[in-house]
Amino acid sequence: MGILIRSATSPSLTKIGGVPTGVGHVDWPVCKSCKGAMQFIAQVRLADSDDPEVSSLSGILLLFACQNQPGMCDDWDADSGANAALLVAPGDEPITAPLNGVTKLDLETFLSLEPYDSSLSQAFDDDNYVAAVDGDGNVLGKIGGGPVWKQGDETPSCECGQPMRFVALLEERGESGVNFGGGGCGFAFICTRCNDKAKFLWQC
Ligand SMILES: [Zn+2]
Ligand SMILES: [Zn+2]
């Protein structure tokens, strides 16, 4: 693969697991179905996208899904209330996970971002994206390009009526503990009209 972009001084704000990092206040989301605290899955710094409509928004997208009763709360569904995508401002609030519920993944994985290179073998059937790569060089997702669906197109609509814009894809791969139904992919979207609305879903 190509050259990895790494910062020697500060960890990437695009990562899988841990707790939200480098953000302002977050109300930790609760599952509409079981009322338990959701699991924090990942965060994406929008500035890491090569899509100008996305990167011009300075926020950080936080992705959560309910894992309190795996398979029972429809956490794959963008509109079930069993997952959450929160677009939040950068900041330095210390965020802690709720004590009750399945709220954290097994591992925290910081992701480096690698520009698409058509001369190299790529992880996705797509182009013009930025690959999200862990410290061992494993591609765990991508930012930008298209959603590369596993099933049919499920691009969600915003409550304003506009189809949402794809931001990032996250693979259920590696040892992070992400559960997308077994080999699935998560898909994150924002509304470029409202600028503060986001949705998340997964397919396997
Ligand atoms: Zn639930
Ligand atoms: Zn909207």
Would you spell out the secondary-structure blueprint of this structure?
Layout: E1 15-16, E2 39-45, H1 52-55, E3 60-65, E4 83-88, E5 109-110, E6 112-115, E7 129-133, E8 139-144, E9 165-171, E10 185-190, E11 198-203
Antiparallel strand pairs: 1-2, 1-5, 2-3, 3-4, 6-7, 7-8, 8-9, 9-10, 10-11
Bound molecules: zinc ion (2 copies).
Question: Can you walk me through this structure?
Answer:
There is one protein chain. This protein is an all-beta fold and 204 residues long. 2% of the residues lie in helices and 28% in strands. It has one helix at residues 52-55; strands at 15-16, 39-45, 60-65, 83-88, 109-110, 112-115, 129-133, 139-144, 165-171, 185-190, 198-203. The strands form two sheets. A six-stranded antiparallel sheet has the order 6-7-8-9-10-11, with no helix packed on it. A hairpin with a 7-residue loop joins β10 (185-190) and β11 (198-203). The radius of gyration is 16 Å and the shape is globular. Mean pLDDT is 90; it is low at 1-10. Bound molecules: zinc ion (2 copies). One zinc ion (ZN) binds next to loops.
